[in-house]
Amino acid sequence: MVEDRAKVVDGVIRERRTSKVMADAPLPAVDARAMVEALAATAGWAPFHRVAARVHQESGALTSIVPWRFYLLDADGCRALRQALLERGNTSKIPRMLAAASALVQATWLPNPPKGPVTGLFEATEENMEHVAAAGAAVQNLLLAATARGIRSYWSSGAALRGPEAFGWMGIPSGEILLGSLFLFPADTGEAEVSPGSHRDRRGAPADWARWVDLDFDRGVAAAGGA
Ligand SMILES: Cc1cc2nc3c(=O)[nH]c(=O)nc-3n(C[C@H](O)[C@H](O)[C@H](O)COP(=O)(O)O)c2cc1C
């Protein structure tokens, strides 16, 4: 029984893969709203350490203490967004994916209000790192739940979809930061082009990213990077 469950979970994790489905002409818009809501609900069971800053709980329509948010766009919305990007001269692969997607999930994370000057995208604190980590766990949950339902997916950095204009169109509060634009594709994508993730087969063996440690209380800090 436990072995069966492990086999299923391990299988879904290994089966998840990046599929970038790209179509030149819009595919028929399939209604995946109920399925996407189920994915978002399951994804929300991710672990999280710190609660979102109060400003995020009070600034928008979404009020949870979790440090992530999901903004769901259905297939018709994807086609309309594609059109808007094309009209603005967007020649990236994003409009082609919006032509094929059955849904787009804009996954954001919620940075704490900075306590000092910020030079980059956000203040580099441990709290913010943990917010990103928790949001990443929620995203992975969503992708795994999609994979378990036979839905192809792609986690994109978002390109134009992470900018203020796209945030405005979707009503996403400007204080949130996009962690990923998650494209979900229907089973039948006809003649559409499908591309894999560029690093899919480059991750090496488990021994390249995990090892047991030998405790040595006399080992210097400088030596710790070695064996
Ligand atoms: C945070 C994040 C952002 C990503 N952004 C992009 C992207 O903008 N463009 C892209 O081609 N792939 C993107 N990917 C997908 C990776 O290319 C892909 O996960 C990797 O090649 C491994 O392939 P796999 O997902 O099939 O295991 C992103 C993945 C993550 C985790």
**Number of H/I helices:** 7
Q: How many domains is the backbone divided into?
A: 1
What's the alpha carbon Rg, rounded to whole Å? Answer: 20 Å
Low-confidence stretches: none
Q: How much beta, percentage-wise?
A: 15-25%
SSE-based structural type? alpha+beta
Task: Return the CATH class.
Answer: Alpha Beta
In the CATH hierarchy, the third-tier topology is known as NADH Oxidase
Q: Please name the fourth-level CATH homologous superfamily.
A: NADH Oxidase
Biggest pleated sheet: 4 strands, antiparallel
Bound compounds, please? flavin mononucleotide
- Principal-axis shape equals globular
Number of strands: 6
Indicate the mean pLDDT. Answer: 96
CATH architecture: 3-Layer(aba) Sandwich
Succession of helices and strands? HEHHEHHEHEHEE
Polypeptide structure, described:
The chain has one domain: NADH Oxidase, CATH 3.40.109. The model has no long low-confidence stretch (mean pLDDT 96). Helix 2 packs across helix 6. It is α+β, with helices and mostly antiparallel strands and 227 residues long. The radius of gyration is 20 Å and the shape is globular. Strands 2-3-5-4 form a 4-stranded antiparallel beta sheet. A two-stranded antiparallel sheet has the order 1-6. The two termini are 39 Å apart. Helix content is 35%, strand content 16%. The protein is built from 7 helices and 6 strands; from the N terminus they run αβααβααβαβαββ. Flavin mononucleotide (FMN) binds next to strand 4.
How does the SSE layout of this entry go?
Layout: H1 2-15, E1 19-22, H2 33-43, H3 54-59, E2 68-74, H4 75-87, H5 94-98, E3 103-109, H6 126-148, E4 152-156, H7 164-170, E5 177-185, E6 193-196
Antiparallel strand pairs: 1-6, 2-3, 3-5, 4-5
Bound molecules: flavin mononucleotide.
Flavin mononucleotide binds next to strand 4.
